[in-house]
Amino acid sequence: MKLLVVGGGGREHAIIRSLKKNPDVTEIYALPGNGGIAADATCVNISATDIDGIVAFAKENPVDYAVVAPDDPLVLGCVDRLEEIGVPCFGPRANAAIIEGSKAFAKNLMKKYGIPTAAYEIFNDLQAALDYLQTAPIPTVIKADGLALGKGVIIAQTREEALQAVTDMMANAKFGKSGSTVVIEEFLTGPEVSVLAFTDGRTVKPMVSSMDHKRAGDGDTGLNTGGMGTVAPNPYYTEEIAKLCMETIFRPTIRAMKKEKRTFKGCLYFGLMLTPNGPKVIEYNCRFGDPETQVVLPLLKSDLLTVMMACTNGTLAKTPVRFQKKHACCVIKASKGYPESYKKGYKLSMSARAAAHTYVAGAKLVDGKLVTSGGRVTGTTAVRSSLEDAIEAAYRLSAGVKFANAYSRSDIGQRALQAKK
Ligand code: AMP
Ligand code: GLY
What pLDDT sits at residue 86? Predict the structure, then answer.
């Protein structure tokens, strides 16, 4: 079988490594892939948002199945366009990807179907938003409606900060068109859990839970990033909570999307907060998380391609999705300065042992040698029988990944370890 994978980060590297385990897979094209992915797939220099380019490539190079991994091509209708030329895909169509593409849509969906989430108001008008903020409870949370690379969320600790954030988004177009509509919502507290779930639009099968570390610095300090490391499973997510989430969040969401004639097929990411009043949805993503995928897929016992195709074909109910009862930890190495400005172009070297456990996110090949090309450069994952051992092994393996100006958090998994104790 020939496969096409759209995307080029650590998440896509993890997906490709898992897909390759299926002996029927003979070729994987990664569009665009990256310098590290090139060791596992044929990289083609077509951007993940160049939908015309992707479709033209698939016409000239017939593939049996495509996996569209990042949010922007999904929201832009990459799956719809590939399906039109007869390529079956893993991933939602544009009309379902809106669950991530518009936070206003997601909030209204949850309200309509009684799915627990933070109380909120939606504004298209700056003055109305400013007026509302005069009496809104503080802290408050301000979110740009559209995609904003995970940066469109401001937790305002003071009224002034809140007024500034809304002005930046709505009047100063800080997030471009994504911020012309804003959601202002209730500030929630509690541990956060990421749950990725396979769904064929009717059946939903959650994967093992995980915990992201979004802030740049140790002790959850500094700026928000795409994620500096992950562990799975998440110790806060007990079996009892999992059951409750299935009944109050996962199934109702899938049913709601079907009812709205926006059947969601693919991976639906539930960003949850376990509040004192029960689990609530913080965000939906229409795709696998990054770097959640780098700890979840290494624990998957079932064949990834088989499960993905069951989501496409509507046969997920009778397809087993099993995970190892072990622990995984992923440590990201980033370029110093990320998520703001950073230098790139440094030589990246990996010991053979480290390379076997490392997913490359931001590196390209120059004269056959890897050099850094992004903020997050690598993610190194270890799977062990205990969380403690997985953390220790991930850091030990990560030491075999070297480039100038590298930085990692030193406390990935520590909060999870404390929660277990
Ligand atoms: P998001 O991009 O929606 O995942 O938001 C980024 C981060 O902001 C989340 O991971 C949470 O830590 C935080 N956050 C988002 N919404 C809320 C909320 N309503 N209350 C408290 N924290 C929030
Ligand atoms: N790691 C968070 C995300 O993928 O959105």
Answer: 98
Predicted local distance difference test score (pLDDT) of residue 176:
77
Q: Determine the distance separating the centroid of ligand 2 and the alpha carbon of 59, expressed in angstroms.
A: 31
Contacts of residue 97, defined as CB under 8 A and 6 or more positions apart, other chains included, come to 71, 74, 75, 79, 91, 286
pLDDT in tens, 269-307: 999 999 999 999 999 999 999 999 999 999 999 999 999
Question: Residues enclosing ligand 1, CB less than 6 A?
Answer: 118, 141, 150, 153, 155, 185-188, 192, 214, 271, 282-283
Contacts of 367 (CB under 8 A, 6+ apart): none
Substitution site in 194, 213, 230, 359 for ligand 2 pocket (most atoms within 8 Å of beta carbon)? 194
Residues of the chain where predicted confidence (pLDDT) is lower than 50: none
> Who contacts 325 (Cβ-Cβ below 8 Å, separation ≥6)?
none
Task: Provide the Cα torsion 386, 279, 181, 161; round to 10°.
Answer: -80
Mutate to test the pocket of ligand 2, among 290, 332, 412 (most ligand atoms within 8 A of CB): 290
Please check whether residue 258 is in contact with residue 201, taking contact to mean a CB–CB distance below 8 angstroms: yes
**How close is the Cα of 153 to the center of ligand 1, in Å?**
7
**Number of the ligand 1 atom closest to the C-alpha atom of 282:** 16
d(CA 14, CA 270): 19
d(C-alpha 221, C-alpha 405), whole Å: 20
Instruction: For residue 90, report the phi and psi dihedrals to the nearest 5 degrees.
Output: -100, 120
Q: What pLDDT is recorded for position 150?
A: 64
Helix crossing, 103-113 with 94-101: angle to 10°? 100
Is the overall model pTM greater than 0.90, yes or no? yes
User: Which residue's alpha carbon is at the smallest distance from atom 12 of ligand 1?
Assistant: 192
Cα of 128 vs centre of ligand 2, distance in Å, is 31
Task: Return d(Cα 190, Cα 112) in angstroms, integer.
Answer: 24
Is any ligand 2 atom within 6 A of the Cβ of residue 7? no
Question: What letter does residue 210 receive in the DSSP assignment?
Answer: B
Distance CA 406, CA 361 (A): 13
Atom number in ligand 2 closest to CA 227: 1
Q: pLDDT digit string (tens) for 145-183?
A: 888 766 688 899 999 999 999 999 998 888 777 778 899
Closest approach atom of ligand 2 to CA 288: 4
